[in-house]
């Protein structure tokens, strides 16, 4: 008898796997053996692809792209047409939630996101509340549309669809700073001088993110990911108090099963989170994502767990800049990363598993043919490790 993940029943797992033409990603998330190491890329639908740039030009703007169900579906599927990737990820942005809170999100070409109404004082923070999820209906419609587009004639999805959100702390950084930041001066000033205001923002963000991800699950997402992109900028102690605790609050509210009773995989990625990996191992999630500064073998020993234990699957973690090297060098780095994880889990039951990914998002300057070399190398070398 196969031992199930403690968070998921046998029926939920069977339903999750049986509804997929390619179930390697879901199996790896839930710590079941796979014939090769599955692969997807953060920002895999993006500016490095000429077809994406053409669709964005038609849409007229980034938000025109993200808020249009048909365009969002089109660009989500584009990388899957090019490469044999093992999962799709919803095309959207982490800042849709604070935009729905009324902060006024805009994207100037070449400048990144900006909020018209950042949270700079107590009055602004006191007005903050969990948004009406109907304001984010365009995201849920896109999830449903993508799932429909991924569904084959036999009713199975080609690959699973990942939904996502920014973490409560990462969203707070943008909400207070009003844009990206080099020093996080404004948000850290609030954190240290008015922690009460920061805790209010983070609590509302956590409850908003949980509702947002649950709505994505209801719309058809088979996995959900929390991007704690800026957790690593916090000091020790502050990370646990202002990031980890609120990520845990999100996870405590997430659905374990989808509308058909299938198991939902939950992933947390903290860029720069290596120093707190042991503490992150206690999070109520299935997968921990790692950036390129963490050794996969050491992470496996720390949180990967033993067969039938409470361990985490690991996701990552090649340096995205490796993709600027020639294909032979990419293949060598792929082999090094896969080998650093160690012998793949084989056989029945649960064990340490790995999902290959970048240590952060793909660069817009990446040659598309180098991504093809990466995918080929991951699938090829990981199969040979199981031979």
Please outline what is shown here.
Helices cover 46% and strands 11% of the residues. It has 16 helices and 9 strands. The chain has helices at 10-18, 24-29, 50-59, 62-66, 69-82, 96-103, 122-127, 137-150, 168-177, 185-193, 195-219, 238-253, 277-280, 296-304, 327-341, 368-386, and strands spanning 88-89, 105-108, 112-115, 161-166, 223-228, 265-270, 287-289, 313-318, 354-358.
Report on the structure:
The chain is an alpha/beta fold. It has one domain: Alpha-Beta Barrel (TIM Barrel). It has helices at 10-18, 24-29, 50-59, 62-66, 69-82, 96-103, 122-127, 137-150, 168-177, 185-193, 195-219, 238-253, 277-280, 296-304, 327-341, 368-386; strands at residues 88-89, 105-108, 112-115, 161-166, 223-228, 265-270, 287-289, 313-318, 354-358. The strands form 2 sheets. Strands 1-4-5-6-7-8-9 form a 7-stranded parallel β-sheet. Strands 2-3 form a two-stranded antiparallel ribbon. Helix 14 (296-304) packs parallel to helix 15 (327-341). The longest helix is centred in the middle third of the chain and has 25 residues, at 195-219. The radius of gyration is 20 Å and the shape is globular.
